[in-house]
Amino acid sequence: MNTLAIETSCDETSVSVVSDAAKIKSNVVSSQINVHAKFFGVVPELASREHIKNINPVLETALKEAGVNWANFSNKIDAIAFTCGPGLAGALLVGALAAKSLASVFKKPLIPVNHLEGHIYSSYIENKSVKPPFLSLIISGGHTELIIIKDFGKYEFLGATRDDAAGEAFDKAAKMLGLSYPGGPIIDERAEFGNCKAVNFTRPYLKGSWDFSFSGIKTALLNYLKKEPVKNEKHLNDICASFRQSVAETLCFKAFEAAQKFGLKQIVLGGGVSSNSLIRKLFMESGKKNKIKVYIPSLVYCSDNAAMIGCAAYLKQKKCGLKYSAELLKSNPSLRLKNWK
Ligand SMILES: Nc1ncnc2c1ncn2[C@@H]1O[C@H](COP(=O)(O)OP(=O)(O)OP(=O)(O)O)[C@@H](O)[C@H]1O
Ligand SMILES: [Mg+2]
Fold first, then answer.
1. Overall pTM > 0.90
2. Label partner for 267 (CA 20 to 30 A): which of 101, 210, 230, 328?
3. 188 lines ligand 1 (CB under 6 A)
């Protein structure tokens, strides 16, 4: 079975062709970062306009790379998957409209995919030994969530951020430090040259809860900068390293505590912040120490991409088939994670 997958939930327009066992035949991603950078965040109206501009060229390239054209589309593509939420309303509609138009013209079934399920299952693309039960940690621009994946499509929610998502905390910290957007990768790069012990930022473990909170570290950074404005490059790198250390240690501590408490032998990361080099290192080291297998997707599958949507769609249709109600096919900007029926 070949699935054409479309992802437009935020600021990446992406199309992928995914075949059986989530094998990726093409995965084209067009990022809008340059458009939004001057605003230090994604501007919804601009995002929708960019998706409208980009969807057709991205679609054509993804089809071409997978050996599909309009003449053989009917034979080569069996279903069309799309991100139906959560995300920006206008952005989601562009992807949904493209998916629904293709499904209608070529008479193909549609598979609605929750964007978070894309992040949860993205490791499965490269590693088929990712099998429930496992602990999923989603760390992205809009989410920080700990969820037990009891089975494919069966979830037990443990906790989430009470304020900023991990990616948002990195981006806001970067802005305070006069760095550009998105700040996560810039702080990560600078941190490699800094001393992580230079500033002792708080570790918000929130003992007794599986929730996260990153607003405290952010305020600690703001207060620190009021007293100690950035002096030079070395000082800036030290602050970046100390900030990154605090976020990474907090995420790692809580994820391993949860895995141990619930007897889970696998931790699976997903979302743009799982690109962070210290987070990757700490999780792999702690996994070895605690005999817990850690899966982290390759960088290309961490931030938004349609391959992960195609992968989640592949797992979903295996369990639920190819018929979804009109209600499930509606785009919903605040879609919650729901068990598959
Ligand atoms: N190396 C890195 N270190 C820290 N953060 C990073 C790194 N690379 C990317 N990020 C952060 O990842 C975020 C983007 O991730 P992603 O594309 O998954 O988020 P999103 O799709 O906008 O949010 P969501 O998936 O919650 O809807 C940004 O906040 C960015 O700063
Ligand atoms: Mg995302």
1. yes
2. 328
3. yes
